[in-house]
């Protein structure tokens, strides 16, 4: 049994999709213009029918994915296929012209049965869906992982364009079929282009009226197309408008957020400098993180995925913080899961000397300055990969210095309780941090009492 998500099946589906599209375009044109195919094209079309035939056989041998369960049972697979797509697939694949000579002559339908090949177009919906998702390898429990290769909104847009173009083409062919004397002295291309023009102007409800129905059947057809046109036009335009506005939904949400912030600033009568800082914080949020609130997404994820995602997301942090690089895997996982992201702009005070400590910080991007509040002395500049805020947590005291962002900074915070717990369970981590804290303390006291250390 073939796995329905196997990469080979996907490539095959893509191939079948291209073949269906070819027939969906070519068959109606041939039916209305009645031209003869060259030998080469004839072979090509036979080949496509063989592809369709092979597809029927493959479908009998492809397992079914139902409610995330893979059904291999041949009986069920056969029954399901027979009840669903088999008839359509069979009719479009069966070479009636080879086997049904008698049938054709008897009923006098010859060529018209080729229209059965169009039946397959209804399967395009399903195939289209599968094209959006690309299968990548098999995972441990024999399921193929599906990866979205096209954004769903863009995909829907492509789908609309595909279907409306195909539909306009069919309507144009129908028009030619009903009026064989439509521009009889012109060549096929001109007649087709004019008919397509009629189809598009009627479907889009523009209807210039330069091409008008003459016979009764044309008039009835035109009315039908007009009514369909209004429906399709409304549906398509409505959907496209929603799609386009949704394409950049994060920007729209962000803009709405800025408006709310502006109203808040006005309502609370905040001074201009504070208002500007709030605004620039949000503009930075947009520029650096595309307005995505990581914490919100975070809270919704189940813990199993959370660990893997956080390991992936904090890859950079783990690679820049020297301590993490050599830390055991369990510690990394434990710490990484508890980290909360935030960022600061140049000049922002992250905390002040004398504050009550709540967190320890890991600096993933940018640099911060460690400043003594009363003297204004710069004790140190910490670069990406450093951590700070550990001293007061270890000593259970107040912050020993002020930390100010020297540039834009991405930081991750670890809450006090989790910090203490992790220190308890990982003595190596505790020793490492305590060692650095001791060193910093010595450095602080040597700077505040320079003579004593001499
Ligand atoms: P904490 O006392 O919680 O708050 C201020 C932080 O600045 C402190 O923890 C250390 O992480 C950091 N710090 C203090 N002194 C120094 C120093 N001399 N060099 C580097 N970092 C320091």
From TrEMBL:
Span of domain Cyclic nucleotide-binding: 323-423
Signal peptide: none
Bilayer disposition of the protein: Multi-pass membrane protein
GO BP of this protein: regulation of membrane potential
SUPFAM superfamilies: cAMP-binding domain-like, Voltage-gated potassium channels
PROSITE patterns xref list: CNMP_BINDING_2, CNMP_BINDING_3
GO molecular function terms attached to this record: voltage-gated potassium channel activity
Protein name as catalogued: Ion transport protein
UniProt keyword Ion transport, yes or no: yes
Species whose genome carries this gene: Leptospira meyeri
């Amino acid at each position: 049994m073939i796995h329905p998500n196997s990469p080979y099946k996907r490539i095959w589906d893509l191939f079948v999709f291209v073949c269906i599209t070819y027939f969906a375009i070519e068959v109606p044109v041939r039916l209305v213009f009645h031209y003869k195919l060259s030998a080469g094209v004839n072979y090509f079309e036979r080949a496509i029918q063989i592809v369709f035939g092979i597809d029927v056989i493959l479908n009998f041998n492809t397992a079914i994915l139902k409610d995330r369960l893979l059904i291999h049972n041949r009986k069920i697979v056969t029954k399901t296929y027979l009840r669903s797509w088999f008839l359509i697939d069979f009719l479009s694949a069966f070479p009636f012209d080879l086997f049904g000579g008698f049938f054709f002559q008897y009923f006098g339908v010859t060529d018209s049965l080729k229209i059965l090949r169009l039946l397959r177009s209804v399967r395009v919906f399903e195939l289209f869906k599968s094209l959006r998702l690309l299968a990548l390898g098999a995972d441990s429990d024999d399921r193929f992982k599906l990866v979205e290769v096209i954004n769903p909104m863009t995909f829907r847009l492509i789908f609309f364009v595909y279907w409306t173009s195909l539909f306009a083409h069919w309507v144009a062919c129908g028009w030619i079929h009903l009026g064989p004397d439509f521009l009889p002295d012109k060549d096929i291309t001109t007649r087709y282009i004019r008919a397509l023009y009629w189809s598009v102007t009627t479907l889009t409800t523009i209807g210039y009226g330069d091409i008008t129905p003459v016979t009764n059947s044309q008039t009835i057809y035109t009315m039908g197309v007009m009514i369909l046109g209004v429906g399709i036009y409304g549906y398509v335009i409505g959907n496209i408008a929603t799609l386009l506005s949704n394409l950049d939904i994060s920007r729209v949400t962000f803009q709405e957020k800025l408006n709310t912030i502006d109203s808040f600033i006005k309502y609370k009568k905040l001074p201009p400098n504070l208002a500007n800082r709030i605004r620039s914080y949000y503009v930075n949020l947009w520029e650096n993180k595309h307005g995505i609130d990581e914490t919100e997404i975070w809270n919704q994820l189940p813990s199993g995925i959370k660990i893997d995602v956080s390991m992936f997301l904090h890859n950079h942090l783990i690679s820049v913080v020297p301590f993490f690089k050599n830390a055991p895997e369990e510690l990394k996982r434990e710490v990484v899961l508890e980290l909360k992201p935030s960022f600061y702009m140049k000049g922002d005070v992250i905390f002040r000397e004398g504050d009550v400590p709540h967190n320890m910080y890991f600096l993933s991007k940018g640099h911060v300055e460690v400043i003594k509040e009363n003297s204004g002395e710069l004790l140190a500049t910490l670069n990406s990969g450093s951590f700070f805020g550990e001293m007061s947590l270890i000593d259970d005291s107040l912050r020993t210095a002020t930390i100010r962002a020297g540039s834009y900074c991405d930081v991750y915070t670890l809450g006090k309780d989790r910090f203490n717990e992790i220190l308890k369970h990982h003595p190596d981590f505790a020793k490492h941090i305590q060692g650095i804290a001791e060193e910093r303390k010595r450095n602080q006291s040597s700077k505040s009492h320079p003579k004593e250390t001499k």
